[in-house]
Design goal:
Elements (H helix, E strand, L loop, with lengths): L1 E17 L2 E15 L2 E7 L9 H9 L7 H7 L4 H18 L3 H4 L12 E3 L4 H10 L5 E5 L6 H10 L4 E5 L6 H13 L2 E5 L19 E3 L18 E4 L1 H4 L2 H13 L3 E4 L6 H4 L2 H5 L4 E2 L17 E2 L2 E2 L9
Parallel strand pairs: 4-5, 5-6, 6-7, 7-8, 8-9, 9-10, 10-11
Antiparallel strand pairs: 1-2, 2-3, 12-13
Length: about 325
């Protein structure tokens, strides 16, 4: 089997800002695996928060033996972006070689569309109100927050989109004191869930303070090994392929988390439709789906995912799986 990796850049439709910084483009790695005249592909988004760079992840991928299998891959590479891209490429290759869809290989029911959140970038209250008003027709909005003066932003978004369901992502930006002060207002404004309010590794207070609305672990949850440390602190887990290290672990994490009583959020990094395609399988029936990466782009893959009023649809075979 030949494994190759290339770098691709997708322009964003507008500047995208979270508590850790801003970006104007999505830089991704595209992996192709080829054998027996069949080529499978996958995508990953190296993430600096997890000490990943394009160079370091590319080196991990290039270090793999040509004989690697999907089962062996789980032990050869750790959870992360490199393993994700190769794992998803191998799923695609296996499905194409067998002439079936990836969900058949995974023994899953045929997937359907899922309503996805649409993310509003962190900005001034007035600009976030305008973003919210422009997207008020969407059923679920996700607000990027994570600063000490977020109350005005919350009020502004609710004013701009009075009927939308709202979830909040603090990206580890709050202290326990800030979150405790904001929580009653989140409830008052109809926020349905808060994602990673405290820094991973400094979130013990979540087990000691009241949680008046569900709290979702993002940076605190990568794969199944993360679950024991979440007990008593979180109500949901955000599964991302780039954190889990691919579809194989993401499916296993979903099953394990559900068995332990956690609700599921299916999330993503900012990438193309190729990155989201395998995630649609994991997103089926999730409490919250956040696979809006392609909606934030000014350009996408040649055969993109379909987004409409029903949500994000399963990938066409020409895209993946």
């Amino acid at each position: 089997m030949m494994i190759s990796v290339t770098r691709d850049v997708f322009r964003l439709a507008q500047v995208f800002t979270i508590a850790r910084g801003s970006r104007t483009e999505a830089k991704v790695l595209t992996v192709r695996v080829e054998a027996d005249g069949v080529t499978g592909w996958g995508e990953c988004v190296p993430y600096a928060r997890y000490d990943e760079t394009l160079e370091s992840v590319e080196a991990q991928i290039q270090s793999l033996p040509d004989s690697v299998t999907r089962s062996a891959l789980q032990d050869v590479l750790p959870p992360g972006a490199a393993r994700n891209a190769v794992d998803c490429a191998l799923w695609d290759w296996e499905a194409k070689r067998a002439g079936v869809r990836a969900w058949d290989l995974a023994v899953l029911r045929p997937p359907g569309p899922e309503i996805t959140a649409y993310t509003l970038s962190l900005d001034t209250p007035e600009k976030m109100r305008m973003q919210a008003a422009q997207n008020a027709h969407r059923p679920l909005l996700k607000i990027k927050l994570g600063t000490a003066d977020d109350m005005g932003r919350l009020e502004a978004v609710r004013a701009g989109a009075p009927d939308a369901r709202i979830i909040v992502d603090a990206n580890e930006g709050w202290s326990a004191e800030i979150y405790a002060d904001l929580a009653p207002h989140l409830v008052r404004l109809g926020v349905q869930m808060v994602e990673q309010p405290l820094p991973a590794g400094a979130d013990a207070m979540l087990g000691e303070i009241a949680r008046p609305l569900p709290v979702c672990a993002d940076e605190s949850c990568h794969d199944r090994a993360s679950l024991p440390a979440l007990k008593g602190k979180y109500d949901m887990v955000n599964i991302k392929l780039d954190k889990a290290g691919g579809l194989t672990e993401a499916l296993a994490l979903r099953a394990a988390a559900l068995a332990e009583g956690y609700a599921i959020m299916m999330g993503c990094m900012v990438g193309s439709s190729l990155a989201m395609a395998p995630a649609v399988l994991v997103a089926q029936g999730a409490a919250v789906v956040d696979l809006d990466g392609p909606l934030l782009l000014a350009e996408d893959r040649a055969v993109p995912l379909v987004f409409d009023a029903a949500g994000v649809h399963p990938p066409d075979a020409a895209l993946w799986g």
